Amino acid sequence: MTTQDKGKIHVFTFKDGLLARLAHDLRLTLGRFEIRREGTALSGRFWPATLTVDGVVGKDGRVDADGLSAGDKAKIQRNITDEILLTAQHPEVTFTGALTPGGIVDGRLVMLGKTAPVRAPVRVEGDRLRAQITLVPSQWGIAPYKALAGAIKLQDRVVVALDLPADPAAGGEATPDPCTWAAP
């Protein structure tokens, strides 16, 4: 079963460095992904070139979509695809793993040709499945992005937040087996 536009994956980045006050924490949205479950087995395909910059995350956690100009958003997206994730050479990120009886996703993520373990709890909230996974980019050989000779940089962590319907076909309470969540 496949669903369109019912699931979301957001990626949060965090500023760091001496001049961090001049930088922004950001929220990005992954535009194309596929997550498949068969029994307890999970697999995922993610296309990082489809990341878009939603805006600046304020201290209150709200996203200010107008906090960056269209030019700044485009520049950030180019930096992500061309300098950080090298999407021309590595167009896809993959995940293989399992969902444990305790509601933990445990597996391996392949990014930039390198594999590292990933583990995170999954929560059921009403008719939604939610998970937050903290990734340490240096595990995949990604150095924190720097500007102004390192006075502004990103922390060596990003948070990936998944929000999926419990039932990809109908958004209901029970998840059929097998099932697929997808975004175009």
From TrEMBL:
It comes from the Bacteria. Coiled coil: none annotated. It comes from Nannocystis exedens. Residues 27-167 form the Lipid/polyisoprenoid-binding YceI-like domain. Signal peptide: none annotated. Transmembrane segments: none annotated. This is YceI-like domain-containing protein.
